[in-house]
Amino acid sequence: MKVILLADVKKLGKKDQTIEVSDGYAVNFLFPRKLAVQVTKKSVEVLENQQEQRRENDAKMKADAQELAKRLDEITLKFKVKTGREGKLFGAISLKQVAEELNKQFNIEIDKRKFVDKGPLDVLGFHHLSVELYKGVFGKVHVQLEEEK
Questions:
Q1: In this predicted model, what pLDDT tens digit does every residue of 6-26 receive, in sequence order?
Q2: pTM for the full predicted model
Q3: Residue 48 above 90 pLDDT?
Q4: Which residue, of 5, 60, 108, 147, has the greatest Cβ tally within 10 A?
């Protein structure tokens, strides 16, 4: 019996894959657990519609991420930090603080885990942090650390 998988099934296949299984396995295991549906004209049509919607949604999200990357490139975040002798910082600016400042000043929400450059900023000057906005779309967040007088 040919079936379309509705979810990943271990040792059988991935979601949206069309496979051949025995009738008993399909009727007694896959169908009751809603892991698969039988291949019919209607089910194939529904599958194609879902895949088309996913492609459109993916393209829209990628375009939004590219637009956000352009917007981020124009922004420079400034932090005033306390320093000791010879310009050494007391503490550091974390990626969480950078993400919160972006949200507070420019209403841009970026998860701190999306930053590619790991680690806190602990040196005065300009820093360019890379952030993955979407699969394959990267943006740059410009951060300037200034000495607090």
A1: 999 999 999 999 999 999 999
A2: 0.73
A3: yes
A4: 5
CA angle 75, 76, 82 (to 5 degrees): 155
- Strands 2-5 and 76-81 turn out to be unpaired
For residues 15 and 50, is the Cβ–Cβ distance under 8 A?
A: no
Residues 6+ apart with CB under 8 A from 19: 2, 3, 5, 12, 13
Q: Please state which architecture CATH assigns to domain 65-147.
A: Roll (3.10)
Residues forming a β-bridge with 9: 13
In this structure, which topology does domain 2-63 adopt according to CATH?
Ribosomal Protein L9; domain 1 (3.40.5)
H helix runs in the chain, sequence order: 23-25, 41-73, 95-106
Collapsing DSSP states into helix, strand and coil, what is residue 8?
A: coil
Reduced to 3 states (helix: H, G, I; strand: E, B; else coil), residue 90 is: coil
